[in-house]
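Handout for the seminar on molecular recognition.
Each group receives one record of this type.
Step one: identify the two inputs.
Step two: read the structure output and locate the region that could contact zinc ion.
Step three: write two sentences on what you found, then compare them with the reference statements printed after the record.
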Amino acid sequence: MQGYVDCHCHISAGDFDKDVEEVIENSKKAGLLALLAVAEHAGEFNKIIELSQRFSGFVFPCLGVHPVQEVPPHQQRGAAPQDLDAAIPVIEKYKDELVAIGEVGLDFTPRFVSSESDKENQRQVLIRQAQIAKELDLPLNVHSRSAGRPTIHLLKEQGVEKALLHAFDGKPSVAMEGVKAGYFFSIPPSIIRSEQQKLVKQLPLENICLETDSPALGPEKQVRNEPINIRISAEYISTIKGVSLETVMEVTTQNALRLFPKLKSAIRP
Ligand SMILES: [Zn+2]
């Protein structure tokens, strides 16, 4: 199995509108086997489905409501239950195509939450989507920022068994509670400039996946990230773990297949 899986990227972002074809071609040349395209709000669901049809067998759709919602033109706020109204019917409509529900989660960055009720709103949005994922037998693709512990605790309380914690910024000890629950953690290229290096050291390779979060979380701040940078995550993990790049590729791709079994159509052993 020669190749990588980008378990979390935003290929529907406006940043890729002009050259998405080229970005996808370059990803394939760089050894990617599949991309998981995650959503942030109902407004981009159709675009993600279209991309997954256009790049069928390579771009795999995940639909979900992110804990931070855009308020055009340039503001952001925490998610609230009414944000699910437009989302749920589209999730239902495409349930057979989806490989996961996401991007969902909790983000307690102070500028997005100013009160306990803001946090509670985000929790309710996550709980509802965890229920939907369970009903549809789909894994969750999860964001957590300044909320590592509450996110993992909520997932466990809700009986979530299949989850990917993307770009986890919590303590390694909290991440290890997730490992015990069977969760996976995906490492973005920004790891080379982050303070989460201890996390990679502690996580067993059997619980690690790769992601880019493109166009965000690249190796360089403010520069558009692309799926080809998945190799930077893999190389970093290989160095920290003292195993070959081959091994990182093999194991993380196996992990992705275990968590997202619908990828089997794209990846043959
Ligand atoms: Zn993301």
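Reference statements: Residues 178 and 204 are 12 Å apart (CA to CA). The domain at 4-267 is CATH 3.20.20.140 (TIM Barrel).
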